């Protein structure tokens, strides 16, 4: 067999904060390493005895392999059982007594192993010392990441329209977000280079940033997906300026079938797991030769957000610093969530069954996306509203020609947006204002957008909401069509 030599990741000591470098983790958790000694009786760890966990057995119903509709799950679902002492009784590799006990910040070894295998199947990282650490979701993972890499007065970089929670996490830490220009393929590499090359510390009041936060696939709010060429171009800029990339990918597996238009036949689903995996745009993680990427994955959009389980993939150095922080903050995700996920993903579905589930989700979102696009083509005035068909995620981003609004020139763009927003509410439909997603609120507003999601309501309601949107826009623009 051929020996493939993989290099280790770059070290990031020059980018980590003093806080991140000073974290020693939990001294008491360190003592756990002595528990392996045979015959040892521990009066050490302050662990409550599992005798007092008021749970003996958990049963929950999940989809049988390949039978994924809500009706199928309800009527023909498979009941999985976790017992308190399944490990001692050789029934399972994980049980209630273990899952509900204190554990390490990186999460339980059982589920972590499954996550690492899944990451290898999907991304096959190119450097040697990569690793995964569980998170309680990407919201928290980004909060911890900011504390690992940024100080008050710093700037980070993101798409000019971005997920507001991340800006709102950064702001109270004294960290501002510099907007990078976008097009229909998301963040523009030239704009990233330009923002960095022209960075003026005196004007910005902070040093040149090095942390890029990006949502490469089905971006929130624009729905844009970066092509492979775009990812490579951005990675090259990251190498040029020695940037650290945080890729936040909750929508990675909501990559949909190609959009064929209202009157063309649908594209058949991927015929095999290989075909499915090949249809996905390669991640930054898979392109990362230097170890300059932290990928944030989350079960929120593909299993359920209330489970609060996700993971990061990065170099061992970064994962170790992250889990030392988690040890003293979030600790691992909820034991109940980890136990149920382990039963479902490892013991019941396995990797292949999970890929089947992801293909199911892909087809469901494709159908919903097609419904909203067809409704938009039917009901919206094309001279006032335009869009690009989303290829991934749950968002449809509508551009509004506010310069054609009768109040243009008399009111500011923000005031016109506010007026349109209220007109939508009058007509009984809620969309998000595009301006709520601006990374840099101080910049002049020169475009207007509305964000719609096709994830939340059934098809008939999507159609009705878009019909109301069309009526509200015509009403607001004084039927300028
Ligand atoms: N505070 C004190 C005084 C404790 O003894 C412990 C657990 N050893 C904790 C907090 C940790 O609590 P939690 O499991 O809710 O994070
Ligand atoms: N990142 C983005 C871009 C999102 O749109 C969302 C959810 O809306 C999240 C992260 C939240 O993820 P989690 O539930 O894993 O915290």
Automatic annotation (TrEMBL):
Keywords: Aminotransferase, Cytoplasm, Pyridoxal phosphate, Transferase. It catalyses: an aromatic L-alpha-amino acid + 2-oxoglutarate = an aromatic oxo-acid + L-glutamate. SUPFAM superfamilies: PLP-dependent transferases. GO terms for biological process: aromatic amino acid family catabolic process; lysine biosynthetic process via aminoadipic acid; tyrosine biosynthetic process. Gene3D superfamilies: Type I PLP-dependent aspartate aminotransferase-like (Major domain) (3.40.640.10). Residues 93-469 form the Aminotransferase class I/classII large domain. The keyword Isomerase does not apply. GO terms for cellular component: cytoplasm. Belongs to the class-I pyridoxal-phosphate-dependent aminotransferase family. PANTHER family: AMINOTRANSFERASE, AROMATIC_AMINOADIPATE AMINOTRANSFERASE 1. This is aromatic-amino-acid transaminase.
